[in-house]
Structures are given as C-alpha cells and as structure tokens.
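We store amino acids, tokens; thus:
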Amino acid sequence: MKVTDILRVKGSTLYTVGPEDALADAVQTMAKLDIGSLVVMEHGDLVGMLTFREVISAVVANGGSVGTQRVRSVMDDAPLTCTPETNIDEVRRMMLGRHARYMPVLERRTLMGVVSFYDVAKTVVDAQDFENRMLKAYIRDWPEGDSDRPAAP
C-alpha cells in the first residue's frame, strides 16, 4: 500500500501558513479547524511544518504565551517528506524514527497533501481487519470433508 492510497481516501484539503505570519494567527487557525499541523509555504515551496509540538515549545519558552513570534521562528524547517509512491511501511518507519506525527507529501516540488500518523495507523488497521475478515470467510467456507481443514477453536 502506498501514500497515494491514503490521500485518495483522505482527500486533498490542505492548510498552509506563511513563515512571516504571526504565530498567534496560526494557532488560532489550528484551533478553529481542529488540526494539529500547518504546512509552511513560501513562494509556492515547502519551507517548514508547524505542529502543536512546536507551538507548545514556543509557548513554554515564552512564559505561557505565543507573544509576537512569527511562524518562522518556531517551525520545523527540515520536516520529513515522502512522495505519493512511498510505501506505507516506509512512512511508518520514518515517522517512528523521528517521532513525527505529520508528513508532507511532495511530488517533485508540488505539495500533494499531508499524512498524519493517525492516517497511517488507520490504514494499517483497516488493511489488517480486511485481511482477517477474508481469512475467516475462507476458513468458514472450507469444503466439508476436507481433511486439511483447521480444527475449530
């Protein structure tokens, strides 16, 4: 399974912010839309990722408020990225390795979407559930009298 499969189900809605935008405005957007990340774009290029992790760190460092900081001052300026053709297992390994919860999907330099760790986990669980249902249906439909039929639990 590939990232493109997640994007097909998830849709292509993207939320972005500019690096010079006020952090307070970005936080309001995240709260209003109930999202955990914003892609930071400048002149059509991905330049960073702003997630609740960076926001929390900035709030703590600023004594409990975002103050007048700009997105650029707190964003992750080297986020992990993948392509639509990246295998889901590779995305999972990359995200676990960097403790990343969000990953922009780029095709060349074009932003195609963002996958979250939740999206990846849901896809894996859904695939496992489907496989389990198919295996149970296969076992249930095993021909009678076939000596190779597994014993009932």
